[in-house]
Amino acid sequence: MTLIKELEHEQMTKLSAGRTIPDFGPGDTLLVNVKVVEGERSRVQAYEGVCIGRSGSGLNESFTVRKISYGSARISERQERPAAAGKHAEPTRTASE
Q1: What pLDDT shows up at residue 13?
Q2: I need a labelling partner for 54 at 20 to 30 A (CA). Which of 23, 38, 48, 60 fits?
Q3: How many domains are contained in the chain?
Q4: Do residues 30 and 50 touch, judged by C-beta distance below 8 A?
Q5: Radius of gyration over alpha carbons of the chain, in Å?
Q6: Exposure string over 81-95, b if 16+ CB within 10 A, otherwise e
Q7: Residue 75: other Cβ atoms inside 10 A
Q8: What is the DSSP letter of 93?
Q9: Backbone angles phi, psi at 52, to 5 degrees
């Protein structure tokens, strides 16, 4: 195993300690929680959408969610792990159709 892969494995183990990341793929409905920082205040905003893609692997893996609200669609791409810029996305599988 190369040094980079060993470091990624250590960081992935540290970040995922105590968390379970569900297995999901394109077509699944997800509930995504995003931490929003506004000035000195922060809040968690949740939205539901359909996963339309996954890319990358390990620490660099991300997924794309299509959010539908009021009849219009919006595409949002989020990291699957906690990001450094105050954003946090955690996929949660909901009832499949």
Answers
A1: 86
A2: 38
A3: 1
A4: yes
A5: 15
A6: beeeeeebbbbeeee
A7: 11
A8: E
A9: -110, 0
Residue 20: strand pairing partners: none
Could you list the residue range(s) of the whole structural domain that residue 20 is in?
3-93
C-beta atoms surrounding 78 within 10 Å? 19
pLDDT digits (tens, 9 = 90+) for 19-74: 787 888 899 988 888 899 999 999 999 888 889 998 887 778 888 988 877 666 66
3-state secondary structure of 64: strand
- Its pTM stands at 0.58
**Which residue reads 């794309």 in tokens?**
64
DSSP 30-42: EEEEEEEEETTEE
Name residue, tokens 């339309």.
Answer: 52
CB 94 within 8 A of CB 31: yes
